Amino acid sequence: MPAGFGAGAAASEWSLSYTPFAMSRLCVILFGPPGSGKGTQAKFLKQALGIAHISTGDMLREHMAAGDGLGHEIAATIQAGGLVPDETVNLMVEERIELPDSKTGFILDGFPRTVNQAKLLVGLLAAHGIRPVVVHLKVDYNVIIARLSGRRQCPTCGALYSVTSNAPTVSEVCDYDGSKLVVREDDREEVVRERLRAYEKQTTPVLDFLRGSGYTVLDVEGADASPAAIARRIEALIRKEVGPAQ
Q1: Residues 6+ apart with CB under 8 A from 245
Q2: Catalytic residue at 151?
Q3: Residue 176 lies in a domain
Q4: What is the pLDDT of residues 205-223, one digit of tens each?
Q5: Which is catalytic among the residues 61, 138, 180, 184?
Q6: Which of 147, 151, 177, 234 has the smallest C-beta neighbourhood within 10 Å, fewest atoms?
Q7: Is the pLDDT assigned to residue 138 strictly greater than 90?
């Protein structure tokens, strides 16, 4: 079978064409600032590498939607303006990587966010004999600001637009219901800049810790090509790092 992304392959084909790794399990730790396309890359890589995509954000939302004991605890913490404790997130990740779909490996999206979480992860991966590779999507912040602040949303139907790549037929008016488009609060330039500052402050010490722990950090330019092309580049770097299948 061809490895990963064939030229022009559709996303639906990737799950049928991945090449397994020689190692027993792989952990891809994915970092990227807001607006870098990290979520999109995680989905592409899940298909190309044939491993699970583990998003801590999704897990938190699932627990809250389920209304279980942990979900109530998480919701109460968030509503009070607090951060979900590292211990809670660590436990969720420990349990999640034991599920069957993580048997051959997994992508961590949104974890670790703190040095304490990173310390737990280093010990966890070592105890399970799992090979880590860190992928750091690097995108010029001016590009991100332009990308996010250029997004528009219809307040009626929820349709999303971009003033640069997916503009409505009539400027600032929804194609579907004629509503005046709005800028979401978290897409306003001043909010985006603050989110980027917070990301930098939070992520830099985590990446430094992982590098100091001997982890390979692959810095990848995340805005100089199409998402599929960037995903192919990341896949090639990962395969080069961990070696071909046997």
Answers
A1: 19, 20, 21, 22
A2: yes
A3: no
A4: 999 999 999 999 999 999 9
A5: 184
A6: 177
A7: yes
